[in-house]
Write a structure and sequence with these properties.
This protein is 42% helix and 13% strand. The protein is α+β, with helices and mostly antiparallel strands.
């Protein structure tokens, strides 16, 4: 390192940071877990309370802290706020989803960058792993899609943690979104997520979930 810091120094500092964090907090309380997952709901209607640029920056800062394979961080976020941009996005939506997007303060297009691997010298600086991806289109695609989906989940939990409500949408035509917003770029859309402060009057009852034994096995 230019400042004389060694890789060993950085590893030791990182380990101490984790020990210090665990000394301050070991788990979330029930109220916090309710807010981000257990009591949270997907929302379909929104109040007119705006979502600030500063809050979008905060959501991203939390999202990017989540783990991805080799710290590849392939997700990209396009925040659609203006009426003109939403009308472009509406071209790709199933009819039932058009009012959900048009009335949301912000809709995030969560996409993935097929050239994410070119940034590995910055994101994974202690070893150059670009050779693991160069010329391997299927591996690039699967890594980008899988890890951008993970980052999309972090994004929704981060938004909830900061007091926002979310509503993810997969009912749209990815090809239309890609042509409208990402033509000529290495970006591909994954899914959409509305952000804002919900109008709870549109909610219906919580849908069933699996019990542990329906979906899990300990072997």
């Amino acid at each position: 390192m230019e400042d004389g810091t060694t890789l060993s120094d950085l590893r030791a500092a990182a380990q101490e940071d984790v020990r210090a964090l665990r000394g301050k907090i070991t788990e979330l309380g029930d109220k916090e877990i309710d807010l981000i997952l257990r009591g949270a709901r997907s929302h379909y209607a929104w109040t007119d309370k705006p979502v600030s640029d500063e809050l979008l920056h905060e959501i991203f800062a939390l999202t990017i802290a989540g783990p991805t394979s080799m710290n590849t961080c392939p997700a990209r976020f396009t925040f659609v706020r203006s009426v003109a941009a939403k009308e472009r996005l509406a071209k790709a939506l199933k009819p039932a989803n058009v009012p959900k997007v048009m009335n949301a303060p912000v809709t995030a297009i969560i996409s993935y960058d097929l050239e994410f691997w070119t940034q590995l010298p910055k994101l994974f600086p202690h070893e150059d792993r670009r050779h693991l991806f160069e010329g391997k289109a299927a591996h690039i695609e699967s890594t980008a899609f899988r890890n951008s989906t993970l980052q999309g989940a972090y994004f929704m939990i981060a938004a909830r943690a900061l007091g926002l409500d979310v509503g993810a949408i997969s009912g749209f035509d990815n090809a239309i979104v890609d042509a409208e917003f990402f033509d000529g770029t290495p970006l591909k859309s994954n899914f959409l997520c509305n952000l804002g402060y919900a109008d709870e009057t549109a909610l219906f009852q919580r849908l069933p979930r699996f019990d542990f034994d329906d979906a899990c096995e300990i072997i």
